[in-house]
Design goal:
8 helices; single chain; Rossmann fold; 2 domains; 46% helix; six-stranded mixed sheet; 6 strands; alpha/beta
Length: 256
């Protein structure tokens, strides 16, 4: 009795077709991966040529002096901006100064490529006696695939150090890892894994911040349209910094 082929059975030639499809698919995936890796290398090389900005600022006014400390990564450092005045750090300092006329001092230690351990190790000096501390870090932890336990441990240490060094009445605001999977300069093949990593990092950050009584501002993909990115398609540009400053100023001036 002949064997009856089920409706969904594969023809005899199917193994060859499937094998060919897999080989072609793997080849295409490998080629895409190689192109993505080359693109990232080029972007990093160009990024190293971008000169850092000096954000520090002293605005005369009434006592008592307000000290603002900013720590974090390239977003806080204003990577790629034409002038420090375009960065959200200075916009916030000037806005708070205009609100009440208090003397205001801004110290920004943020640097390109910083992750949470880097902030703790190299930027904590600006926290001393700060009345306002703004932390913008996390995406590099995501990119470097730091796990949730490590992120939680590192952020706990950082926030503990903030409260140890800053003014006893300090207000701390943490900008959690943005979902940079929507960045127009990011190769498409890298978007899905980066989305998962950024969202995981942001979730851990919110949990640890809540345990320390620290407020957070989230940056999901919905608030990151293409126009907020700068010329490299990855870092926030002038429009992005303007919108970040507006969100931060709204939070900083709200009743607490």
């Amino acid at each position: 009795m002949p064997t009856r082929r089920l409706p969904w059975s594969l023809p005899r030639s199917a193994p060859f077709a499937v094998t060919s499809t897999v080989v072609v698919g793997v080849g295409a995936l490998t080629a895409s991966s190689l192109r993505a890796a080359a693109h990232v290398r080029d972007m990093r090389a160009r990024g190293r040529e971008v000169p850092p900005l000096d954000h520090d600022l002293e605005l005369a006014g009434e006592a008592p002096l307000r000290r603002i400390a900013v720590v974090g990564d390239s977003a806080a450092a204003g990577h790629g901006l034409p002038d420090a005045e375009d960065a959200w750090a200075r916009q916030i300092a000037r806005a708070l100064h205009a609100t009440d006329g208090r003397a205001t001092e801004l110290r920004n230690a943020a640097v390109d490529g910083a992750d949470i351990p880097c902030v703790l190790a190299t930027q904590a000096h600006v926290l001393d006696d700060a009345e306002v501390v703004l932390i913008n870090v996390g995406v590099n932890d995501a990119i470097r695939r730091h796990g949730p336990r490590r992120i939680a441990r590192d952020l706990d240490r950082l926030l503990t150090e903030v409260h140890r060094r800053a003014d006893p009445e300090v207000y701390v605001l943490l900008l959690t890892a943005p979902d940079l999977s929507v960045a127009p300069g990011l190769p498409a093949i890298l978007a899905p894994p980066l989305a998962l990593l950024c969202r995981m990092t942001a979730r851990v950050q919110r949990r640890v911040a809540a345990a320390h009584g620290v407020d957070t501002i989230a940056m999901p993909r919905q608030v990151l349209p293409p126009e907020v990115f700068g010329d490299d398609g990855f870092h926030p540009g002038v429009i992005g910094h303007r919108r970040m400053a507006a969100a931060l100023i709204e939070r900083l001036t709200a009743p607490r």
